[in-house]
Design goal:
mainly alpha; 0% strand
Length: 151
Amino acid sequence: MEKAKKDLTIWTKFLLDFMFFAGIAVTVSLPWSVKLVGRQLPYMVEHYEETVIIYFVLGISALKLLWELRKIFRTVLAEDCFVRENVVSLRKMGSWSFFIALMSMVRSIVYMTIAMGVVILVFIIAGLFSKVLAYVFEEAVRFKEENDLTI
């Protein structure tokens, strides 16, 4: 892999790792941070339990999605990305994206914002993209395995 591509991949992996570990901290701190944010946004305190539960579920789901993406990046860094494990990870990422969109819709029942509508749309698109990319990777893996057998 040429240096510029490798550097970009390493920095992206670093960013994913940071997001993953920061996500753990944010998710664990929800009972306290919701009260803190609630000083500025009173509707969060009015629905404290629902808010903490919904954001906890969303946080865990986002962490699962990031975990799968981090696994894919490990294979990219190893320069062996067309493997069955990545097909499985892409499928899981699609499912987690759809689940996040669904939970965001549930959250919108408690209180709706325009930003949440955008989040729902983004995760539906991400879910579709991940599922389609899983099909592409599956074909690439099949083609690679056939070529390996030919040699």
